[in-house]
Amino acid sequence: MAATLRDVAHRARVSPSTVSRVLNNINTSILISEETRQRVLSAAQEVGYKPNVVARQLVRQQSFDLICVIVPHASPSVLTHPFYMSVVQGIAHTCQQQGYAVTLYFADTNTPDPHILARDYGRIQDIPANGIILTTTYLNEQYVPRLLADNIPFVHIGHFASNTPPTTHFVDVDNVMGGRLATEHLQQQGHQRIATITGDLTMPAGQDRLVGYQTAMLHAGLPTPPAWIVPGTFDPDSGYVGMQQLLALSPRPTAVFAAGDAMAIGAIQAIQEAGLTIPGDIALVGFDDLPQAAHTTPPLTTVQQPTTRLGEVAAEMLLAHVTAVSPPPAHIILQPHLIIRDSS
Question: Domains in the chain, ordered, with CATH?
């Protein structure tokens, strides 16, 4: 059986896309070191790889000014979720300004199934992209070590677990500060029994917003009973169910910080179905400032994170890395802002 690109990649310990770029002499000076190039050429000779001449000519005719954006297929509403829509819009706008096309790939970078992980990662390696942007960070992130090992340029939206190399590129919002802003605002309104519906705690953003809440409560000398910390998943259903749990407590909290606007919208439904008023009976603060937040009843007080700017900065960082025009900073942290409306 004739040797394939994957055989060469396995032998050279690189990705198939790297083999393709070396053998077709595409952007190798930008993306691939001389040591890696020589290793690929040696591996191709050792396994007896013979390129398909027709396919090679087709590849040479293609433009490889392409950025791959990985979004989580685990979210059922990812195609309509305002966060991802806004982030991708920022990425696309910046890439197009610099002459790069954008392609989306839906993958679960947190999957415990090694077969699914290997399948999806292999497909991503075959995309002729100059670099990758990952839009969601998990504590058990599976792609980052593979991308680092394969020397594939990438930027992550959201910070990493502590064991990730400090030079790894990411852009994030100060989620701890955002959680503090939300909780301190409720304290300033005179509330002491303040609960929270957390975000997904397998994600740094979920954990950080919880830390912000806990820090603000600790500094104010206020208690945080375990029953007041209800886990959520950033989707409206978890906000609805979480709010029902809080309403069943006695005494119930007088205020709630929902760590995502989608959950806050679910919480509003639960409060109103219980015949209670916002903010008269329960004050509520969200996080994100999604477009819907200004149009809920009542309009939602929330912590605004610049989602479009997150996408723009991620693209700027990656393109600076890919083109080697200037070395991008490893980390950029954007600041959140409190938007006060009628729900608090």
Answer: 5-61 (1.10.260.40), 66-174+307-336 (3.40.50.2300), 175-304 (3.40.50.2300)
